[in-house]
Amino acid sequence: MLTELSIRNLAVIEHVHVICKSGFHVLTGETGAGKSIIIDALSLIVGGRGSAEWIRYGSSKAEIEGLFEVESDHPVWEVLERLGIEASMDEGLLIRREITSTGKSTARINGQLVNLTMLREVGECLVNIHGQHEHQSLLKVEEHIHSLDAYGGEQLAPVKAAYRAAYDVYMALKKEMKALQDDSMQTLQRIDLYRFQIDEIAAAKLKVGEDVSLLEERRKLAYAEKLMTNVSESYDLIYSSGSGLDAVNKAMNRIQDIVSYDAKLQPLLEQLQSAYYQLEDAAYQLRDYRENIEFNPSRLDEIELRLDLISSLRKKYGSDVSEILAHYQTIKQELDALEHKDARNEELQQQLDAQGIILAEAGMELSARRKEASESLARDIECELRDLHMERTQFAVQIDLADDSDGIECAGSFVKFNREGIDQVEFMMAPNPGEPLRGLAKIASGGELSRIMLAMKTIFARIDRIPVLVFDEVDTGVSGRAAQAIAEKMSQLSGSCQVFSITHLPQVASMADVHLFIRKVIDNERTYTQVADLDQQGRIEELARMLGGAAVTETTLHHSQEMLVLANEKKTRI
C-alpha cells in the first residue's frame, strides 16, 4: 500500500505531506481546492506524463515522492528484478519524480535512475487510477475483448499465446507468398542482375584475405631495390672486416685479458659476449633475407591487375573480399529462390493451408475458453451489480465471429480472424426486466456505467492484485440509494486493497476509514493547498458542509453525526 506521499511545488501545492493508512480514504473539499492535484501527483510517480506547466509559479522544479509497502510475493518484485532495479523486500519501495521548468523529467526507484517506460511498468503493478470519464472506455466495443481476456487469466493466457504464435507463423508465410507474387517483369530483371553478379564474382575466384596478402607482396616487390640496398649495407656494417662485429670482438678480447685483475669487469664482459652473439645472429638473418629478395617485374604487374579487379568488385559488392563473398552467397540463394519461384510458391501454399488449420483450431479453442470465461464474468458482474442496487439488471458477454478481411477455410466453413482471435466481443445489458440485451453504448446512463465499472474494478482487484485503487469522482451523477451502494462497495473493496476516492457525496465520505480534507488558502497574495487528516469532529463538520452547502446548521451537524454512526455499523457488517 501507499504509506506516504510528499508533494512540492506542484500547481497550487507548495508542500504537502500525507501519511496514508490501509483501508478506504476519501478526499473532499470545495471545487478548485486541489483534490485532483493529489491524484495527478500520484499519477506522476507511477509513470504519468508531466509538463513544465504543472510547476508552481516561481519554482524551478516540482518534486513528488511516494513510499510503498508491498507484500513479498507481489508480482512487482519480479518486474523490478527483470528491469535490474535493486530493491529489498524488507524495506519500502521509494519512488521519486522531478519535473524541471525546462520540461526535463527524472525518476528514481530506491535512488536508482529509471526511464519513464520502466517507471510506468513498475507503476502499473502498484496503482490503478480510474477517472470520472474513464468509464467511457466501456463504450468502446474493441476494448471489451481485452477485459474478457484479462478476466480469463491463467486459464486463458496460454491458449491465447498459442493462438498468437500460430497467427504469427501464418502471417509470415502469407507475407512471403505475397512477395513471391510480385510483378513478373521485376522478377526477370532481378534474375538477370543476380546472374550477372554471380558470374562476375565467380570468375574472379576470390579467396578470403587475398587482398591483404597481395598488398603485402606488392609492397615488397615495389621496393625490392631499396630493400636490397639497405639490407646489404646493414650486413656489411655488422659483419665485414673492421665493422661492428669485429669491433665488439676486439673489445671483448681486451676485457677478457684483464678480467682476472678485477672481478667487477666480469658483468661487462658477459654483456659484450651477449652483444657479440646477438650481432652475429642479426648478421646471419640479414644475409638470409638478402638472398630471398625477389626482383620480379612481371609478378608485380600480375599483382597490380589482380588488385585492380578486387578494387572494382569492392566498389560494387563490399568493402573487402569477405563481404564480396558473403554477397555472392546471398544472391545465389535469392537467385535459387527466384528460379524456383513456382515450386516455392506451391510449397508455401501447402504450408499456409496446413498452418491455416492449426490457426483455425487454435482460434476455436481460444473462442471456447472465452465463452467459458464470459459466462463466469457475467455472473460475477451481476452479483456485484446487485450490491450496487442494480439487482434486476441482466449482464451478458456476447461473442460473435470476427468480421475481418482475413479468413481460413476450416471444417467446411470460412472462419475470419485477426491477431486477437476469431471472436468479436461486446458487453451487453438489460437494465429492466422484459427488455432485450443491448450494447452498453445504446442504453447505459452515466450512473449505470459508473456502477458497472466499479463492479468490474472490484472483480479485477482480486485478479491483478494491484495494491492501490484510485477513483477520481466516479460517483458523479449518482445520488440516493445508488450513492450509498457505491460507498459500501468501495468500503468492501478496501478490504483487499487500499482505496482512494475523490468525492462530493456525503454517503461516500461517511464510509471512509481515513478522511482527507483539501482546502485552499490565500496568504500574501499567494494561493496554497493544504491537506488535513480529519478527526471525528472534523468529519462531522465536513459532512455537514457537504450536506448543507454554505450553511452548516445544527440539523446538518446532527445528520452528519448520525451518518457516521450508521456508516460504522455498516462497515462492521461488510
Characterise this structure.
The chain is an alpha+beta fold. Among the domains are: 1-132 and 473-574, 3-Layer(aba) Sandwich (Rossmann fold), CATH 3.40.50; 210-319, no CATH class. It is built from 18 helices and 17 strands. The protein has helices at residues 35-44, 76-82, 116-126, 141-180, 184-204, 210-222, 224-239, 244-258, 265-292, 297-317, 321-339, 341-387, 440-443, 446-464, 480-493, 506-510, 536-548, 554-573, and strands at residues 2-10, 13-19, 24-28, 61-68, 93-100, 105-109, 112-114, 127-131, 394-401, 407-410, 413-416, 423-430, 438-439, 468-472, 498-502, 514-523, 526-533. The strands form 4 sheets. A 6-stranded antiparallel beta sheet has the order 2-1-4-5-6-7, with helices on one face. The longest helix is centred in the middle third of the chain and has 47 residues, at 341-387. The chain is elongated and about 130 Å long. The mean pLDDT is 85.
Write the layout of secondary structure elements.
Blueprint: E1 2-10, E2 13-19, E3 24-28, H1 35-44, E4 61-68, H2 76-82, E5 93-100, E6 105-109, E7 112-114, H3 116-126, E8 127-131, H4 141-180, H5 184-204, H6 210-222, H7 224-239, H8 244-258, H9 265-292, H10 297-317, H11 321-339, H12 341-387, E9 394-401, E10 407-410, E11 413-416, E12 423-430, E13 438-439, H13 440-443, H14 446-464, E14 468-472, H15 480-493, E15 498-502, H16 506-510, E16 514-523, E17 526-533, H17 536-548, H18 554-573
Parallel strand pairs: 3-15, 3-16, 8-14, 14-15
Antiparallel strand pairs: 1-2, 1-4, 4-5, 5-6, 6-7, 9-12, 10-11, 12-13, 16-17
Helix pairs in contact: 4-12, 5-11, 6-10, 7-9, 8-9, 10-11, 12-14, 14-15, 17-18
